[in-house]
Amino acid sequence: MTEGRSDLAAARRSNVPGLPGRVKIVEVGPRDGLQAEKAQVSTDVKVELIDRLSVAGFTNIEAASFVSPKWVPQMADGADVMARIQRRAGTFYSALTPNMKGLEAALAARLDEVVIFGAASEAFSQRNINCSIAESLARFTPVAKAAKEAGLRLRGSISCSFGCPYQGDVAFDAVVDVVTRMRDLGCDEIDIADTIGVGTANRVLEVAETVSHVFPLERIAGHFHDTYGQALANIYAGLQAGIAIFHSSVAGLGGCPYAKGATGNVATEDVLYLLHGLGIETGVDLNAVVAAGDFISRAIGKPNGARAGRALLANAA
Ligand code: HMG
Ligand code: MG
């Protein structure tokens, strides 16, 4: 399969001034992409997906979720998944850990990075993790401490940084407040998440600027769901603002079980096509991701949500 026409090759040679030369993609498909699937995806399929993504060259893969299996049954086999994947040297494997029970499971499963996940919206916090923002931060405190003591990387994720499915608008101050608290808990990286994909490029620039006063932008990640088709534009705006870490999901899989109507994250294949076209290095093999996207779409019987993935598969056929 070939990625290119001559115009794309020309674009690759030119770095657009002001944009980063290298970007880290956090592949969240195995977690964010699969968590809302109604039919149980087998552990074998999850393991094969993660193995394919590891071979593709991602340095960070969100592989599991150690949350209550009553709340998110699809993620109940996280320990088995982690025990069976082929770990690639140089790749960090992450999992969601909402409380100490989750952290203990993550430690037993030898995760490299744990993710405390809160929200900038009270209503979403209640629906997603059954507590207020303040209560969540109190719960995260021992999780963060134990993660650091165990030498793990700690990431914080802030849902509804661009809007909430239950309360609508979310104030900048609310986002900055949670970023500040997660910074104080020792987060190495913080994700500003557009859970329902309502953000637009100007809002990304504004949020990035506001947040940069309390946390270094080079450790901020953009986590954009593509519900309104804005995610690639939002990534471009993020690049212009100085963000160089983005989350995406192979084949555009996913949605949040606690955000009605939200679609998946932006498709990794589309993001790679954009970044490589801009001459930005990712270290990820687009063709290998396209093949992984084809594999998982067939395995779960869903249309492949990656535009670039579909186009490259059609070219190769
Ligand atoms: P709760 O019911 O308030 O907690 O849930 P609890 O402490 O009362 O525990 C209830 C039961 O769950 C107990 O079991 C616990 O042992 C068990 P029981 O005694 O009834 O048999 N339990 C657990 N089991 C396994 N692992 C655990 C765990 N904790 C409790 N870690 C809780 C609170 C946070 C646990 C629950 O609300 C929950 O699991 N929520 C998960 C929600 C979730 O995973 N949402 C999707 C991921 S977030 C997302 O997608 C957004 C993101 O992508 C960014 C964006 O796009 O916005 C990150
Ligand atoms: Mg998400």
From TrEMBL:
Pathway: Metabolic intermediate metabolism; (S)-3-hydroxy-3-methylglutaryl-CoA degradation; acetoacetate from (S)-3-hydroxy-3-methylglutaryl-CoA: step 1/1. SUPFAM superfamilies: Aldolase (SSF51569). The keyword Nucleotide-binding does not apply. One of its GO terms (biological process) is ketone body biosynthetic process. Signal peptide: none annotated. GO terms for molecular function: hydroxymethylglutaryl-CoA lyase activity; metal ion binding. It catalyses: (3S)-3-hydroxy-3-methylglutaryl-CoA = acetoacetate + acetyl-CoA. Residues 23-290 form the Pyruvate carboxyltransferase domain. It comes from the Bacteria. Its EC number is 4.1.3.4. Keywords: Lyase, Metal-binding. InterPro entries: Aldolase_TIM, HMG_CoA_lyase_AS, HMGL, PYR_CT. It is an enzyme of class 4 (lyase). Belongs to the HMG-CoA lyase family. This is hydroxymethylglutaryl-CoA lyase. It comes from Mycetohabitans endofungorum. The lineage of its organism: Bacteria, Pseudomonadati, Pseudomonadota, Betaproteobacteria, Burkholderiales.
